[in-house]
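Internal ticket - ligand job 315, phosphoric acid mono(formamide)ester:
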Amino acid sequence: MKHFINLNDLESVPELVKQGRALKADPFSFQHLGKNKTIGLLFFNSSLRTRISTQKAALNLGMNVIVMNVGADSWQLEFEDGVIMDQGKAEHIKEAAAVLGQYCDVLAVRAFAELKDRDADYEETVLEKFRKYAGVPIINLESATRHPCQSLADLITIEELKVVERPKVVLTWAPHFKPLPQAVANSFAEWVLKTDYEFVIANPEGYDLSPEYIKNTKVVHNQEEAFAGADFIYTKNWSSFEHYGQVLTQDPAWRITPEKMALTNNGKFMHCLPVRRGLKVADEVLDSPDSVVIQQAGNRVWSVQAALKNILEAL
Ligand SMILES: CCC[C@H](NC(C)=O)C(=O)O
Ligand SMILES: NC(=O)OP(=O)(O)O
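stdout (structure tokens):
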């Protein structure tokens, strides 16, 4: 595997899930692979889980790790070509990516959607320019439209916990007061579609995700209908794709409550975190034995470690 940016970069989702679980069972089994190799972690946005789990995974593989907050620690970067750089951005991505590729054997990049221009976000300008100009493998730590390290961890968690061969998995929207990216939801949907799970998406009118990611997945605008008999409830807020970047509703009726979880088949509550308690989900749900969000977050190490192992093997 050369890069881990999107699903086109890998051959088999089930194989990567299997490798992630094997690394969880034997974390230092490939410690030789990363010896004298350096990974550079570049954050254009905040992070807790991704920042720490990626460092831990790289250390488990014997790598050296460098972390930089782009813009705060470095120069503001210009991504447009052919412009006269006479404003605030002092460095072009062409030079910045190529120079970082001189220092690091692998680069891992977080750059959220700006939620202003749908075409620009969905062209994945930032990650694709790093892929083009860095000259080294790139790992996606959440880009404008995807979060593959999260999605692989999500599938590892479902495989660990499922009690039936083909669980019913629900991706449900929950309210938030500011616009959030579609990336986590897009990514979860496209990874689940690589499994044989029963999959349903529940969101209010106007919040349907891009067909490019959800294909012909059943979308319902009634949360209770979706929850009936579900084995896993994956909760996430996202802003409207159709009315790009807009918050069309903050309806608290979409909050996850014990009464809704009671509609499920002893369903497990999942969320990528961070989650705003009380706003998106009741404390009783998050604090219940059916919440698996901590195990899910723990699996982020094994997720990115599996991706990084495959990248190191291909160097
Ligand atoms: C892992 C989630 C990152 C980000 N969350 C926030 C709060 O910006 C999002 O919604 O994409
Ligand atoms: N789930 C996730 O990616 O968390 P962070 O934004 O804290 O890295």
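Auto-summary: The chain is about 35% helix and 15% strand. Residues 47-51, 142, 150, 272-274 surround phosphoric acid mono(formamide)ester (ligand 2) (CB under 6 Å).
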